[in-house]
Specification:
By secondary structure, this protein is mainly beta. It has 1 helix and 10 strands. It has a single domain, classed as Elongation Factor Tu (Ef-tu), domain 3 (Beta Barrel), CATH 2.40.30. 12% of the residues lie in helices and 42% in strands. Strands 1, 2, 3, 6, 7, 8, 9 and 10 form an 8-stranded antiparallel sheet that branches. The radius of gyration is 18 Å and the shape is globular. The mean pLDDT is 93.
Length: 138
């Protein structure tokens, strides 16, 4: 039996304009999802298959923070407020797993949606949806 390595969530760095976003949700604290597949498939009437490149490198990143992660939430809320008031709230986003080097970077991102607010008997989570026009996996 072989050993595949060690994962440590504390070694995943999320930076917005170079500022570390400290804090995390209870389980998934950052997720990256491409908006479109890299390829689409077309099957002809006789069964021949062709593919087309979509050329869409946009993505959606969700950052989940605990309700109590005040500093990170204030920073992201501030960017959203600046963007809403002036249109100048875009930023660079960097995500890197320092354990294995898996990483993504994007420029000209913006907060698509600020978190819904709910107040419960225990600490809740806040999800920031970030629009990414051109995701680069490195």
């Amino acid at each position: 039996m072989s050993f595949n390595g060690t994962y440590d969530a504390a070694r995943v760095a999320v930076l917005v304009n170079g500022v570390p976003i400290k804090g995390s949700g209870e389980s998934t604290f950052v997720s990256v999802a491409q908006n479109e597949d890299d390829w689409t498939t077309t099957v002809g009437a006789k069964g021949e298959v062709s593919r087309s490149r979509t050329n869409d490198s946009s993505a959606e990143v969700t950052i989940t923070l605990m309700q109590t992660d005040v500093a990170a939430r204030e920073y992201l809320d501030g960017l959203a407020k600046v963007d809403k008031a002036s249109g100048l709230g875009t930023f660079t986003l960097s995500i890197k797993d320092l354990s294995n080097g898996e990483a993504a970077i994007a420029r000209n991102c913006w907060i698509q949606s600020q978190p819904d607010m709910s107040f419960e008997g225990e600490v809740g989570e806040r999800e920031y949806i970030i629009a990414v026009p051109d995701l680069k996996r490195v």
